[in-house]
Amino acid sequence: MGKMSVIILFAGWLATLQASRPLPVADQVLLHRYTILSQVKANVQQELEQRESADGKKKSIPRAVMLSAVLPGAGQFYAGSYVKSILFLTVEVAAWVINVRYNRLGDKKDAEFRAFADKYWDERRYWSYLYYRLLEDGVELPFSFERKLENKEKYWYLIVEEQYPEARRLLRDYENVLPGFTHRLPEKSEDPQQYYEMIGKYPGQFGNAWADASFLVEYSGYEGRVTPLNEKYVQMRNESNRYFDIAGYGAMVALVNHVISAIDAGFTTRNLNRKQQVKLSYKNIYYPGEYVNMLGLQMEF
Q1: Three-class SS string for 76-97?
Q2: Helix (H) or strand (E) segment spanning residue 176
């Protein structure tokens, strides 16, 4: 801590002790002046002590940092910086409001697109399309089809319902045999996140299982060849992901706010502790033939 001393000289020259003046009178004058200056010193020192008492003791920097790390703005409030405290707390509240609000919107949209997929995307159609493609490549398995015809340009086959459980089990071994079939469909009950992502993200493999798809068409996401239902589903998932991204940004802002608030609380408390301290001193110095009263004012900061 640096120190700066300001010496105030009171040009209160005492009457020069001339040889003709009696010494007792000079002593009385000197004593009178000294008494007055002592009283001034006592009054000033009392005022300084009252101010120090009003300001309180020095604040703990580690405590301020810890408080703001837990709750942004708390350390600033502890240090007496109330405006900063309100600002950091406002950012904290706003960040978590955004996080909670958009997480709820994301959850709601997530439930919507999953219900949409359960209604319009059929796993039995997926395995039936896989078997349909295997038959085209000359791979025959002991399963039968029932043809579902919507019109001449749009039709599909479904594995007979009684044979479907066994067919599904065997067809898993052929899932990655066909060109473009690079993914394995997970069990919905075991990994729902991947399940619902794949059926919309890879139309080349899963696009033919949508209710508006045809086995006559090979769909492709790269070429923009997807069914309207598949496209709508992807839009719903993207909207859900966007909500979750915004919620994530809110959490990130809250985390950064904790760090910045903790750092600022440390600096704010340090600056508070560096508040100026003032000390008063008095000396009566005898120069040749006269006395000089010297009052010193020392400020530490």
Answers
A1: HHHHCCHHHHHHHHHHHHHHHH
A2: none
Read out DSSP for 115-159? HHHHHHB-HHHHHHHHHHHHHHTT---S--EEEEEEETTEEEEEE
Residues 168 and 124: their CA atoms lie apart, in Å, by 8
Extended strands (E) in the chain: 3-9, 145-151, 154-159, 277-287, 290-300
Kindly state the tokens that stand for 230.
Answer: 């598949």
Q: Tokens 């469909």 map to which residue?
A: 185
Strand order in the sheet with 3-9: 3-9, 290-300, 277-287
Q: How far apart are CA 132 and CA 139, in angstroms?
A: 9
pTM of the model: 0.67
Q: Hey, CA dihedral for 41, 47, 50, 55, is it positive or negative?
A: negative
Q: What's CA 243's distance to the chain center, in Å? A: 16
Tokens representing 141 are 């398995």
Ordered per-residue pLDDT tens for the chain, 301 residues:
444 433 333 333 333 333 344 445 555 555 555 665 566 566 656 655 665 554 556 889 999 999 999 999 999 999 999 999 999 999 999 999 999 999 999 999 999 999 999 999 999 999 999 999 998 888 888 888 876 655 555 666 889 889 999 999 999 999 988 888 999 999 999 999 999 999 999 999 999 999 999 888 889 877 778 999 999 999 999 999 999 999 999 999 999 999 999 999 999 999 988 864 555 555 555 555 555 555 555 555 4
